[in-house]
Amino acid sequence: MEYRFIHHWQYEPGEKENLILEEAIALIDKERSDTFLTDLAAFISEKARAKYVLIGLLTDDAQKAHSCAFLRENQVLNNISYHLKGTPCNEVITQRFCYFPVDVSDSFPTDVELKELGIESYLGSLLLSDAGEAIGLITLMDEKPLENAAFAEHLILVLSPAIEEELIRLKEKTEQKIAG
């Protein structure tokens, strides 16, 4: 899979960011375990300084998402399933990338979870299969504006191919269980 540059920032990673990107590449080159997506979500949460990170697998009709990794302040939360209609995640499906620096919950008044969690900012990116079909999404959310959204997007773009591979593997594993 290739890197996809969806949003264009006037941004050049500094020395600190480049070291983090090298760390990210080393992380995805390690042998993968069942906690791979959770480990990546924790890495993204820490390095992008996002309170919440969710990596989700989409249903075939892209109407619903099932979280495969959901963290709050690097603590693993129970996985959830949710309908995308009326959420910023639905915008990710149609636009491939979206960023709401402030007031995201006001922009999606029917998404009660955003209000309950006190979410102020949201950054989301679409994840694709080898055939270019929507397979999942990754979201970063916080109660305050993200400190460096341009770097957060850059980090996601570097990690996306590995996340996509893992989502494809999980989807195939689930389909084999259903068929078998």
From TrEMBL:
It comes from the Bacteria. This is GAF domain-containing protein. It comes from Pontibacter populi.
